[in-house]
Amino acid sequence: MSDKKNLLYIPKIENGIVIDHIPSGEGIKILEIIHSYPQMKDVVITFGLNYLSTKFGSKDMLKLQIDFLDPKIIQHVSLVVPGVTIKSIKNYEVYKKIVIQPPDVISNLLECRNPKCITRSERHLETVFVVVDKQHKKVKCNYCERVFNLNELETRIQP
User: Mind listing the domains of the chain with CATH numbers?
Assistant: First the structure.
């Protein structure tokens, strides 16, 4: 039997995007986010749960066979599972690596829950939320100035 430390569970990809250092169990959330975007429906994705990790004990990982990941998707992932690593791969080598964190301003990704907010009646307006408390995940609508907890808000996904 081979040494488990050297066993590669998910094969390397020649070109694509690797989403790594995902806390165990959170990978499913990222997979759901990716599949909620129409342009991502046909992308080949390799998904692994509970891999051994020196940083977390165990982690999840996704490998996408796509050259470019839309910044809106990255922003969406950063709101749900901050701190994951996104690596761009070319010829089996990492050529770009970022650790994502939620932005201070969230543009056109969230729906305001205030029924009187202008973004509810004027659907063409881009929604804008400003983070007012990162620790407690509080954001304020730029138009109606209502403060919401991030998990109260629905995402606004457009093709």
Answer: 12-99 (3.30.70.140), 105-152 (2.30.30.20)
Using one digit for the tens of pLDDT, what is the confidence trace for 15-57? 999 999 999 999 999 999 999 999 999 999 999 888 888 877 8
Q: At what angle do helices 71-80 and 27-35 cross, to 10 degrees?
A: 150
Cα distances (Å, whole numbers) of residue 13 to 47, 66, 88, 108, 113 = 13, 10, 10, 32, 41
What are 99-116's pLDDT values in tens digits?
A: 999 899 999 999 999 999
How far is 135 from 145, CA to CA, in rounded Å? 19
C-alpha distances out from residue 66 to 20, 77, 120, 150, Å? 15, 17, 34, 29
The number of beta carbons lying within 10 Å of the beta carbon of residue 73 is: 21
Q: Is 28 helix (H, G, I), strand (E, B) or coil?
A: helix
Q: Are 81 and 22 in contact (CB under 8 A)?
A: yes
Q: Scanning the structure block, which residue is given the tokens 């307006």?
A: 125
User: What pTM was computed for the model?
Assistant: 0.83
Q: Which residue has the tokens 């701190």?
A: 83
